[in-house]
Amino acid sequence: MQKPDEADAAKAAPCGDDTAAGLTPAQLHVVITLGFCGLVSAADNWFVSPALPAIASTLAVAPTVAAIILTAYLVPYGALQPVCGRIGDGVGRLRLLRIIVLGLAVGTFLCAAAPRLSLLVVARIVTGCFAAGIISVSQAFVGDVVGREHRAGAVGILMGITFTGQGLSAGLGGILTDAVGWRAAFTAFGVLALIAWFGLFTLREPAHTKAGVVGRADAEGAQGPESGAIGDGGAEGGARASCRASANPVVRFAADALRIFFGPHRAVFLLACSTGVLFLGTYGLMGTFLAEACGLTPTESGLVMMLYGVFCLLGGALSGRLGARRGLSHVISIGEVAGQVAAAALTLSWAMGSWVPALAAAASLGLGYILVQPTLVTLSMEADPAQAGLCTGLIGFAVFACGGVGSALGTALLAAGGYGLLWAAVLCCLIVQGLVSRRVLPVGAD
Fold first, then answer.
1. Angle, vertex CA 443, rays to CA 442 and CA 446, nearest 5
2. Residue ranges in the chain modelled with pLDDT below 70
3. Which residues 6+ apart lie within 8 Å of 313 measured at CB?
4. Alpha-carbon span 24 to 31, nearest angstrom
5. Tens digits of per-residue pLDDT, 346-400?
6. Among candidates 405, 403, 379, which has minimal Cα distance to 391?
7. Which of 182, 171, 77 has its CA nearest to residue 132?
8. How far apart are CA 372 and CA 148, in angstroms?
9. Is residue 22 left, alpha or beta, with left meaning phi > 0 and alpha meaning psi from -120 to 50?
10. Which among 37, 155, 44, 153 is positioned nearest to 97, based on CA atoms?
11. Residue 259's CB: how many other CB atoms inside 10 A?
12. Is there a contact between 334 and 311 (Cβ–Cβ < 8 Å)?
């Protein structure tokens, strides 16, 4: 007998007509549509970095002052991912996605029209708040549609498409700004966000998740301190249910988030923290390294870093097959080795004063990140399947918040000993992460 999620996906495709990662055409349509939404949100973030000098010049401020618009986007983007995931668990993921992708489009248009820095900062905060939930809610929605068996491969493809936007925007951002100006670039990304929003109306919420939302609402309404239904859990279980029902939503959200993050699956979330520090921290400093140590122009540096996006896409397509053959923990191990290769290549690039090894570094870093991060997302959903959106949001929070920490730590190491010390430290830490993950993750995790 087919499960509801399998039946819904099967309606749009004949039996046995499977495509990438064992997905039906209908399921692949969902993944690609949501991947495009993620691509736009990632590109909207990362294209701003090469555009900063032009923005600063137009608004008559120093580039170091204009850099606040990066923080204005990233802080809400990382901090609100668990919140958006929790909201999606309650009101329906597709409904929330339609709201936040439209908000991303509106916020991006506001950025294009901002006449001064203070208003641009406000517009970036608004954009970051709406963009925050796109990735985490999309990951949970894909998990609902494809089911547990194909979840890893589907999430890998989703994230490969998403972070292709991150990699490509590093190169295209500078070119687009030079060609048409930063306001026109923001407008272009706003148009792409609108296209992504229209694409969401070709999707539908799986029937079993709609029933789950109604069921949770009914259950919460039926519970209360006066309820005498204790059931199989005894007095202790009844007390927990009563306490949960009577707590205000903020306290309940915080309690659930802490329980999931530090519960039996805490190794997954802590590895997400180290992945953010090492992988995203390294990526954030590569552009400066290529300019200062290798003498490349911003456009040339961006073109080198575009390999990151290309290998994110390739790695996303491969992760599902690797996971099916060797288990998810082995996919993470392969990704960590790729990260180590990237750090070693950057060390070689520094020693030679050449950008050529950095090509291998950008490719390996993209491959490594896309094998590790989506696999951690897949494992996180097992922490509490009833709150998959919150689980994926916590992974997003851990990765992006710690990515900011990694950039700060990397900057401190750079000031203390230069790029040689920085890349050597990253290599050592990635080796330690690889050894630790082999011990804390089950060998046959799937």
1. 75
2. 1-21, 49-50, 63-64, 167, 170-171, 174, 207-247, 298, 442-446
3. 160, 161, 163, 164
4. 11
5. 999 999 999 999 999 999 998 999 899 888 988 998 888 888 888 888 998 888 8
6. 379
7. 77
8. 18
9. left
10. 37
11. 12
12. no
Do residues 299 and 174 touch, judged by C-beta distance below 8 A?
A: yes
State residue 437 phi and psi, 5-degree precision.
-65, -35
- The rounded Cα 422 to chain-centroid distance in angstroms is 25
> Helix crossing, 151-180 with 356-380: angle to 10°?
140
Q: Residue for token digits 């499977």?
A: 18
* Predicted pLDDT of residue 327: 81
Structure tokens at 41: 């949100």
Neighbouring residues of 90: CB distance < 8 A, sequence distance ≥ 6:
213, 216, 217
Q: Please answer whether residues 79 and 399 qualify as being in contact, where contact means their C-beta atoms are separated by less than 8 angstroms.
A: no
Token pair belonging to 241 = 């249910």
Q: Report residue 231 as tokens.
A: 């059931």
CATH domain 18-207+257-440 topology: Growth Hormone; Chain: A; (1.20.1250)
Nearest to 136 by CA among 53, 207, 78, 221: 78
Q: Are 174 and 306 in contact (CB under 8 A)?
A: no
Token pair in block for residue 228: 């005498």
Give the number of C-alpha atoms closer than 13 A to the C-alpha of residue 18, restricted to the C-beta side.
Answer: 10
pTM of the model: 0.71
Contacts of 357 (CB under 8 A, 6+ apart): 345, 346, 348, 349
Domain residue limits, the chain: 18-207+257-440
Handedness of CA 352, 356, 360, 366 (dihedral sign): positive
Amino acid at 332: I
Q: Is 243 left (phi over 0), alpha (psi -120 to 50) or beta?
A: alpha
Residue 74's H or E segment, with its range, is helix 68-79
Written as six digits, the tokens of 77 are: 């983007």
CA distance 420 to 414: 8
